[in-house]
Q: What sequence folds into this?
């Protein structure tokens, strides 16, 4: 703990030091048109006199007023721009120690008839800017923002792929963290997808793709962060939208529906969203295993079909912010989710010394029911402590998740020689309860010369209880003590960070930070008496540098250290059976995975980028099959592999094929290697991987937009599995009606059923092959009506969500 306290003391000492507190002045003014009407949301940029490089900037509020921190002493001009108006550039002005700021008074913009005539074809593609520590995809004001959902825009961002279940990959790597306005989401993959599908893209300001997050973010998560920044609600009164959609995966029908309401008065801003759904899905699979034992060889051939239906009455999310004054506001956020699910997993399995001569047939049918509830609450404060940009924010969060499940296992064993059969019925009842409490504050202070220091603290407490009971059910329930387990997990984390950013010259931007996280955890099985205690303090440094070589070429470097903690379900040693020869089991001895990530990126013309990256991973968390060769059984568990190496290139190249046809293209090439010295001996898995992604947007006559998404993933290594190539093609047709109040879209996903999971392991010659298709191919129709066009969501709105919940799976 002494390192944690030392970091906090250093941060407070640095912020309190008078020598740093030489705050610069401010630049202020008001923007109106020729008729004296305010021009809101205009872009204000401060540019070096005689140059084209923007030093700093801001966006005016709805009344045309702007205020921003002035840069260091020098000569500058102010450039003001807005759609439909001519660019305004002020005469050069000087800033010095004696005159650090300036009030521009009234600035008048002149209408630009030519620009207004072309507004329908401007901004077809979201603009992309490569910052020192992230890529920013600007959505506001583009054609993509009209008639699309937040999910549509996120799914078409460079290197991002989201499957039908909501699982997200970034540059071919899973485990991505999604944030709203810089706060982590409470939602599972399906719930997150449902929420984003119900959110109009017009609510988005931009999307930040952060492959190497800086120290201010939680150290959890090694694949990167996708941060969706929402626009500010400026429309007074009540506004919102309603939507409904239906989909069919050629075996099952599903639907979603919902509404959003926003209300704004003088001092308060409130929102309410409702999202109901009937989610459907399943899989059709083939599993093949070959066990080479000392006394015999066993072939395992299985055909499997799985189906699920998950229904949810409207998920409720609501919140409000109240302005105590112009600089201080408080608010709350609350959410409630209830979901009921039913699923089955039906298998036919043949076992024998050869495929041609099986000796046993097993008909195993599993049926399960679950009820899931999620309660979330948040209280928050946001303060602007002065006019130079000093801010203080604080959040208190509470999450309670309960899940109750039941499952029946019907197993019929048939000996194919004599033709005799036996029947065995089993039953499980599971109850899990997860509670998370967290509090944090973040402090930001700008200093002279464009420097900025950020500091903060976070504490969290997690309590997880899992009572899993297994019964034989052959006439009467009989508890099986060997497969029953009551497991409790307690975890507390204390974290603090200090982050600095600034310029070292006209063209070099720097950022450096350090985060400390102290973790204590106790996992206890009351059934076996086994107790696993862990206590570890880690430091997570991050460094970023961006050098402008010339006006058309930037070079940036980043380094960060991250970790992945095991999710709570993976720590629970309870067994869940797929069939009599296959089961999953948790591992209470799991350790965190650590990743050191290096990235060198080239950006040309502010549009094209090529990034070299290298990730070095230790204690890699991965699913591992453990074989009992003589019994022909397989246990799947999560374990720590020794090391992982991922080295590769990522290229982003948008290209306009015509004025009405735009494309966004991404290519990833990487070499991946994983190795471990485990029970089955020393194992190595390596593969050259490549991914090609191309998204196309075509503006057709009569306000019809055609969108095409194509993707090809080459073979890859993931832990001990070798995954075979996959491909995806999706098409959407969208039309805006009723003076842009009604949006209708028809989409078809995975047209050629190419997104099929085929992966295998070879452990000392023993084969374990999977071939699964999760019914990604579907057709869907969505209708959305905006009863107040242009409704926006408050930037203060909290889906104030915690990393801890993302590990609840």
A:
């Amino acid at each position: 703990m002494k390192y944690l306290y030392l970091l906090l003391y250093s941060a407070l000492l640095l912020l309190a030091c008078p020598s740093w507190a030489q705050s610069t002045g401010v630049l202020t003014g008001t923007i109106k048109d020729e008729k004296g009407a305010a021009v809101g949301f205009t872009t204000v940029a401060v540019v070096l006199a005689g140059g084209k490089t923007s030093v700093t900037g801001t966006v005016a509020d709805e009344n045309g007023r702007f205020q921003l921190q002035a840069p260091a002493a020098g000569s500058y001009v102010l450039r003001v721009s807005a759609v439909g108006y001519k660019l305004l550039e002020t005469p050069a002005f000087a800033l010095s120690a004696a005159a650090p700021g300036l009030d521009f008074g009234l600035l008048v913009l002149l209408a630009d008839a030519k620009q207004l005539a072309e507004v329908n074809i401007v901004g077809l593609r979201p603009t992309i800017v490569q910052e020192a520590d992230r890529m920013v995809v600007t959505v506001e004001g583009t054609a993509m923002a009209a008639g699309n959902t937040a999910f549509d825009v996120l799914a078409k961002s460079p290197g991002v792929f989201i499957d039908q279940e909501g699982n997200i990959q970034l540059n071919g790597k899973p485990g991505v963290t999604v944030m709203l306005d810089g706060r982590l989401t409470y939602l599972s993959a399906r719930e997150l997808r449902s929420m984003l599908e119900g959110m109009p893209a017009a609510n988005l300001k931009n999307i930040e793709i952060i492959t190497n997050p800086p120290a201010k973010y939680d150290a959890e998560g090694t694949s990167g962060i996708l941060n969706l920044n929402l626009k500010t609600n400026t429309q007074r009164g009540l506004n919102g939208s309603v939507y409904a959609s239906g989909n069919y995966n050629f075996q099952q029908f599903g639907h979603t529906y919902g509404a959003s309401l926003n209300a704004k008065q003088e001092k308060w801003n409130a929102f309410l969203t409702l999202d109901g759904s009937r989610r459907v899905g399943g899989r059709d699979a083939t599993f093949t295993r070959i066990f080479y034992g000392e006394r015999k060889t066993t072939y395992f051939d299985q055909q499997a079909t799985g189906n699920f239906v998950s229904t949810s009455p409207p998920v409720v999310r609501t919140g409000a912010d109240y302005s105590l004054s112009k600089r201080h506001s408080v608010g709350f956020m609350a959410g409630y989710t209830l979901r009921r699910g039913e699923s089955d997993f039906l298998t036919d399995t043949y076992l024998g010394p050869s495929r041609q001569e099986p000796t046993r047939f097993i008909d195993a049918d599993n049926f399960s029911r679950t009820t899931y509830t999620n309660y979330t609450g948040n209280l928050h404060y946001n303060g602007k402590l002065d006019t130079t940009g000093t801010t203080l924010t604080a959040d208190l969060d509470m999450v309670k998740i309960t899940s109750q499940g039941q499952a029946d296992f019907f197993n019929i064993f048939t000996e194919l020689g004599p033709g005799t059969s036996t029947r065995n019925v089993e039953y499980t009842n599971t109850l899990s309860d997860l509670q998370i409490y967290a509090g944090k504050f973040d402090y930001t202070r700008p200093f002279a010369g464009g420097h900025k220091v950020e500091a903060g603290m976070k504490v969290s407490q997690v309590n997880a209880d899992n009572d899993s009971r297994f019964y034989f059910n052959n006439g009467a329930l009989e508890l099986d003590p060997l497969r029953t387990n009551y497991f409790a997990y307690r975890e507390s984390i204390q974290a603090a960070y200090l982050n600095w950013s600034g310029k070292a010259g006209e063209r070099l931007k720097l950022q450096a930070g350090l985060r400390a996280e102290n973790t204590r955890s106790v996992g206890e099985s009351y059934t076996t008496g086994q107790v696993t205690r862990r206590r570890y303090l880690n430091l997570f440094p991050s460094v970023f540098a961006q050098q402008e070589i010339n006006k058309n070429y930037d070079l940036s470097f980043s380094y960060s250290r991250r970790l992945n903690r095991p999710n709570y379900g993976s720590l629970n040693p309870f067994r869940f059976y797929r069939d009599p020869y296959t089961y999953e089991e948790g591992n209470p001895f799991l350790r965190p995975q650590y990743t050191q990530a290096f990235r060198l990126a080239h950006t040309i013309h502010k549009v094209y980028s090529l990034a070299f990256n290298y990730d070095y991973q230790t204690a890699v968390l991965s699913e591992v099959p453990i074989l009992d060769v003589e019994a022909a059984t397989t246990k799947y568990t999560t374990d720590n592999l020794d090391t992982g190496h991922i080295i590769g290139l990522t290229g982003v190249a948008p290209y306009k094929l015509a004025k009405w046809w735009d494309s966004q293209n991404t290519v990833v090439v990487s070499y991946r290697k994983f190795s471990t010295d485990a029970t089955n001996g020393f194992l190595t898995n390596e593969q050259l991987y490549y991914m090609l992604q191309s998204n196309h947007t075509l503006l057709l006559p009569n306000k019809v937009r055609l969108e095409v998404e194509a993707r090809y993933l080459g073979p890859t290594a993931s832990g001990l599995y070798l995954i075979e190539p996959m491909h995806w093609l999706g098409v959407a047709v969208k039309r805006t009606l009723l003076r842009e109040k009604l949006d209708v879209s028809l989409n078809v996903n995975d047209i050629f059923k190419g997104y099929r999971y085929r992966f295998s392991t070879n452990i000392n010659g023993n084969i374990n092959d999977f071939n699964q298709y999760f019914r990604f191919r579907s057709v869907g129709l969505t209708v959305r009506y905006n009863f107040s066009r242009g409704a926006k969501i408050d930037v203060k709105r909290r889906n104030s969500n915690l990393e801890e919940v993302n590990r609840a799976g």
In short: The first helix runs from residue 2 to 16. The CA atoms of residues 380 and 395 lie 4 Å apart. Residues 127-535+542-789 form a domain with the Maltoporin; Chain A fold (CATH 2.40.170.20).
